[in-house]
Amino acid sequence: MSLLVVGLSHRSAPVSVLERAALNADAQVKLVQDTVAAEPATEAAVLATCNRIELYADVDKFHAGVAELSTLLAQHSGVGLDELTPYLYVHYEDRAVHHLFSVACGLDSMVVGEGQILGQIKDSLARAQELHTAGRLLNDLFQQALRVGKRAHSETGIDRAGQSLVTFGLEQLAVGGAVEEWAAGRRALVIGAGSMSSLAAATLARAGVAEVVVANRTFERAERLARILTEGDDTAVSARAVPMAAVPDELTRADVVVSCTGATGLVLTAESVAQAVEGRTGGDAAETADDGARASAETAPSPATGTAGAAEENCPLDLAAVQGSTGFSVHGEAAVAGLDAATLEQHGAWVAGGAVDRRETARRSPEADAELITALAATAASVGRIPELRRPEPVAVIPRPAPALFLLDLAMPRDIDAAVHRLAGVRLVDIESLADASADAPMAADVDQVRRIVSDEVAAFGAAQRAAHITPTVVALRTMAADVVAGEIARLDGRLPGLDERQRGEIRQAVHRVVDKLLHAPTVRVKQLAAEPGGAGYADALRTLFDLDPETVAAVSRAVDSTDEKDRPA
Prior knowledge:
By secondary structure, the protein is α/β, with parallel strands linked by helices. The protein has helices spanning about 15-20, 25-35, 60-75, 80-85, 95-105, 115-130, 135-155, 165-175, 180-185, 195-205, 220-230, 245-250, 270-280, 290-300, 310-315, 320-325, 335, 340-350, 365-385, 430-440, 445-495, 500-530, 535-545, 550-565; strands spanning about 1-10, 40-50, 50-60, 90, 185-190, 210-215, 240-245, 255-260, 405-410, 425-430.
C-alpha cells in the first residue's frame, strides 16, 4: 500500500473554483467514507480549509487511485470532473509526505508561516479516527505532521514570515497600518463561532476594539465565545452574543464585521450591506467610483466639441462611434484599433495637422500620437489590421469616500456577496483579495531553514515506514525459528529420555543461542537496508528465502496494528 494525495488549493486553482468545490462537514464525512469503500483505498482522510481541499488515502494502485480519488472529489464537491481536473495536483509516496509536512509548517499557506493549519490538521485526523478511516499509515503521517509543524515553529522564526489569515486580513482592512491603531474604539461584529471566528474575535479584542458582538446559528456557542472574551486575561472586552436573526440590526451599529460560517449561501447580501451603510454616509451606498467616472465622462465635452466643423471633415474615423467609447482618445491607440494601414496613415496625417481640440489630449502631444499611429500603421501593414482595442486613456474618477464599514470574509464558500466590493463607503477583504495580496508578501529567511527541517523529517519518516514494513516479516521469521527449536528439543527429549532437567535446560539454551546468533546479523542488516530508499523489496526477498507463509506475516502485521491502535492516545 502507498500514500496518495489528490487535491486543489489557492496555488493551483482560482478562488472561484475553490469556492464552488468547498465541502461542508457532512460532505467531508461522506467523502472519507466513500473513499475507503472504493476498491483502491484502505485508509482515507480529508483536509479542507478555506484555501485547500485535499484527500489523503492509502492505495494499492497508483493510476486507479488517482482516478478514483479525483472522481470522488468531483462528485462530492459538485464541480464536474472535466472542469475540476485542470486544477488538481497529485502527490505520491515521499512527495505526498513532503507536501503534508510543508502544509503543516505553513510553507504552503496563503500567508506563509501561519499556524492555524496545525489545528485544522489535528481536526482532520480526529475526524478520520472517529470514522475509523485512519489506519496505521495515516495515523502515523498526520501525527508526525503535527510534530514537524510544531518543531518548525519552535526552532525557527517562521512565525515572522507571516501571520494568521485573520491577522493578515485585518492588516489589509487597515490598509497596511497598525491594526491596533485602526481597531481602537471600533465596534466589531463576528459572525460564526468556529475556530476561525473565535481567533478573529480574540484578535480584535486584543487589538483594542470597544465591543465584540458574536452572532451564530447555535446561540449557546455564541454565548460561550462572548463569555470567554469577557473573562479572558488577555481579551477582557465588552462582548455579547446575539442570534443570527439580529445580524441586520447589528450591522447598522458595527464598524468591523468578520464572517466565517459553514453556510452554503450568502450570509450578507450587497443589498443588506448597502442599507446598513446608507444611514452613516448620508448618500447612496450603491454609487461607486466607477459610477462617478461615468458621470464625469457624460458631462465632459465630447472629443469633437470645441472644434470647427472642418475638424471632422478630413478625419477618417467615425467620431460618433469613437465618442461612444467613454474615455477613449480620438488620437490614441483605442480609437484606431481595427483600422487598416492606409487609413492609419491618413489618420496620422490628420492628427499631425492639428485639426482637433487640444483640450481632449492635454497630456499627450499630437506629435507623439502621430508617431504612435505611424508605428501602428507599420504593424498593420505586416499583419493586416490592428485586431483589438487597446488600453483606454486614464480618465478622471470621483474618489471613493472613506470606508464607514469594514468587512472581512474568511469563509469558503464566501459569506459576503462579492458585489459589496462596488459599494461606496465599504471596504471588503475576502479570500480572493487576500490571495492577491499574499502574492506580494515578503518571505522570511527562516523559510529556508524550515524547508531543511521538512526534508530531514520526510527522510526520517520514510525510513521509519520502510523499516516498519519489514518488521512483521522479521517477527514471522523469528517465530518460525522458535517453532523449529521447540520441535527439535521435543525430538531430542524423545531420543534421550535419560537426560535430567539441568541437562535439558543447557541443551535448550545452547540451541536458542545458536539460532539467535545466526539470525541476528541478517535481521538487523535487512532492517537497515529496508529503511533506505528502494528497500521495500527486502521483505519480499526474506519471505522467499525462508519460505515464510504470507498469511503468517499478515497475521503478525494485523496484531501489530491492533496493538498500536489500542495504545494510541485518544
